[in-house]
Design goal:
21% strand; six-stranded antiparallel sheet; 688 residues; 20 helices; alpha+beta
Length: 688
């Protein structure tokens, strides 16, 4: 798929580099030449592009998602087919995934968990209100920006993928987060996303998913059966209120789950206002109340509480009793020496007894072997029990500190001869390999050698100062860490043009997989550095570091491409020669200047005016008669709710004046005579 690099799709999108690969597509960084902005382009892999039905669904779903507009959802700009490539163009996110963040931090405190969870729930509420279910909410699809806000990615794309995936083909990374109804292949609705959000919250609080297994099917069955341990049993400091929200969201019974993202957000907001809230009262949908459980002693699909504590202690470099791993190893060695001396003493006693027994056995054998002294026919009595074979236990995945050789009397577990190795899979202090293998049949007393993880191998940032740009790039790529390398220009007196001035992170600092690395490349002496994307403070510091007394003027304006408080243009431009006392203009973004139109339909006039004013929109009132909408309430608004518009946009709202009085006035009926007409008299009827 990397053959797209350098190509121009639709004579508009220039493909620059690969920034991610998924099961269905490859994501590239690209430049939109029409709008002169950086974007992300997701191109379907060839095997999916060749499937016409898949392509049709891909385009239909992507176009539906393009209608979403929410600050917590990655925007889709374009959906197209060009040069045998089906692709979507999306907002380019500068940040890391929640999965990468969790891998770095282990687990999060409850405040950070709530902060991220509320944003995810708001994104789901917006999508669900427009009939879109994500179907693949997991930390891999949640991006964390530098300002701490999050954006949910792959809306709608997951729906297309689910049409082709079966459970056995589903990636293990996804099956840990699927709802029970997804696992059973049943109908999926909004509540499936809320279940997955609950699982993500569980992982944030505890550092682990609620269910795990060797195969996707075994994990899926656990989702269906339910019964996950409560987060407070695995991590300290989890408030009962947040635990309730998490466990209710991931209730395996669909009817006992939250009915909507709005309901879940309501509880989150109530808990945010009062973290001591426990939701102890029964809820309307019959969900179980939060009742603290007693410390578990029986395994329930995971570690017991004591194992969890040892696990946390091992990560901190200490054992369960507070001693360091080195202190505990020394103690084990001392105990082994004492046991060896005791065994030697026992062997002497056993030797004496064995001698006496041997004399008795010789006497018995003589009797048996002499003629008539016993049966002539003998039987072979050798068996596997007499040979003494035993099956080797499985130690892989166990904390070394929890293994006591006395628990395995038929094997020799030598804790003084333990091998150590780096591992990306096993935490430090956990057994990662053993010889002989688990399940092997060996003679009693066979030595078992354990290999224990030293944790992930620390790779440090090399010293790249004064290297050429090409050599520095090659050096970093040889580390095989998938680093995200960014080049920035910087003026320098000491470093020749084209060589590395400095790096972020600095030399000898620890590097993580996928980490962002910035290489500052020398422009030569007193050249204008490339400040695009820098904060205003960082840009000022870099200019002042030139020490030639440049004057700095800052101009603020809205900008769709750069975040608020980021430099989006400079004058002079990067690479131009600077002279002492020159004035440098920094153009700093005030943000996109766009807002979402609130929904004021059928609200009172006061409420509508206040809501639109708070959204920084201009309100135009138009009063009209209406037979259905009460007096003083909104009949209609000129821009649909949820539409993204510029600040200050005019929004016309029609306010009801009540019923039209001209329609209620009825014509007066003719007046009835008050008295009946008098009858003619006889005199009047007589003829003259």
């Amino acid at each position: 798929m990397e053959n797209y690099i350098g190509r121009l799709l639709d004579n508009r999108y220039e493909i620059l580099e690969v920034i991610g690969t998924g099961g269905m597509a490859v994501v590239y960084r690209a430049l939109d030449h029409r709008l002169n902005r950086a974007v992300a382009v997701k191109i379907l892999k060839d095997e999916f592009s060749r499937n016409e039905e898949f392509r049709r669904r891909f385009h239909a779903e992507s176009q539906a998602v393009a209608m979403l507009s929410h600050p917590n959802i990655v925007s889709v700009y374009d959906v197209s087919h060009s040069e045998n490539a089906d692709y979507i163009v999306m907002e380019l996110i500068e940040g890391i995934s929640l999965k990468q963040y969790l891998e770095k931090k282990g687990n999060l405190n409850w405040r950070e968990t709530l902060h991220f969870s509320m944003q995810i729930a708001k994104a789901l509420e917006h999508a669900h209100s427009r009939g879109i279910v994500h179907r693949d909410i997991k930390p891999h699809n949640i991006m964390i920006l530098k300002d701490g806000s999050i954006k949910v990615a792959d809306f709608g794309i997951a729906r297309v993928g689910s049409a082709k995936n079966t459970l056995t083909r589903e990636a293990l990374g996804s099956v840990h987060y699927i709802s029970p109804e997804q696992a059973k292949g049943a109908r999926v609705d909004n509540r499936s996303d809320l279940y997955s959000l609950g699982v993500v919250m569980y992982e944030m609080l505890t550092g682990r998913t609620p269910y795990d297994g060797e195969t996707p099917v075994s994990v899926a069955i656990q989702h269906i059966n339910g019964g996950a341990r409560r987060p407070s049993e695995l991590a300290a400091g989890v408030p009962l209120g947040l635990e309730y929200i998490t466990m209710r969201a991931m209730n395996s019974n669909l009817e006992k789950r939250y009915a909507s993202a709005a309901d879940m957000l309501h509880d989150m907001e109530e808990f945010r206002k009062n973290p001591s809230l426990t939701f102890m009262n029964p809820v309307a949908d019959g969900a179980t109340t939060v009742v603290p459980k007693t410390p578990a002693t029986v395994r329930s699909g995971g570690m017991t509480r004591s194992e969890a504590e040892r696990y946390a202690a091992a990560r901190a470099g200490k054992t369960g009793d507070g001693r360091t791993v080195e202190e505990r190893r020394a103690e084990r060695a001392r105990r082994e020496a004492e046991r060896a001396a005791e065994r030697k003493k026992k062997m002497i006693i056993i030797g004496v007894l064995a001698g006496a027994v041997a004399v008795a056995l010789i006497a018995i054998l003589l009797i048996v072997l002499l003629p008539g002294g016993g049966d002539a026919e003998t039987e072979e009595t050798t068996s596997t029990e007499e040979v003494g074979e035993v099956r080797v236990d499985n130690f892989i995945g166990m904390p070394l500190d929890s293994i006591d050789p006395d628990d395995y009397p038929d094997l020799k577990i030598d804790l003084r001869d333990v091998k150590e190795a780096y591992s990306d899979e096993f935490e430090e202090g956990y057994v990662m390999d053993q010889t002989p293998k688990a399940g092997d049949m060996v003679r009693k007393g066979r030595k078992v050698t354990l290999t224990v993880s030293k944790g992930k191998e620390e790779i440090k940032m090399p010293d790249l100062i004064d290297m050429t740009e090409a050599t520095a790039m090659s050096t970093l790529q040889e580390l095989n860490l998938g680093l995200k390398i960014t080049m920035k220009d910087e003026s320098s007196k000491e470093i020749r043009q084209g060589n590395i001035v400095r790096t972020e992170p600095k030399a000898d600092e620890k590097l993580e997989k996928g980490q962002e690395v910035i290489l500052y490349v020398s422009l030569g002496e007193n050249k204008m550095p490339n400040l695009k994307g820098d904060t205003e403070a960082n840009a000022r510091a870099r200019l002042n570091a030139l020490k030639i007394g440049v004057k700095i003027e800052v101009l603020y304006d809205t900008n769709d491409e750069y975040e608020k408080d980021r430099v989006y243009r400079t004058d002079p431009e990067a690479g131009e020669q600077l002279m002492p006392n020159d004035t440098v203009f920094l153009y700093v973004s005030k943000g996109s200047g766009k807002v979402l139109v609130p929904n004021v339909m059928h609200q009172s006039r006061d409420y509508a005016e206040k809501a639109l004013a708070e959204a920084k929109l201009e309100v135009i009132i138009n009063e009209v008669y209406d037979d259905e909408v009460p007096l003083g309430y909104v009949i209609s608004q000129s821009v649909l709710p949820g539409t993204e518009v510029k600040e200050g946009t005019q929004i016309v709202i029609d306010i009801s004046k009540g019923q039209d009085p001209s329609k209620t006035e009825a014509t007066e009926p003719p007046t009835e005579p008050t008295e009946p007409p008098t009858e003619p008299t006889e005199e009047a009827t007589e003829a003259p």
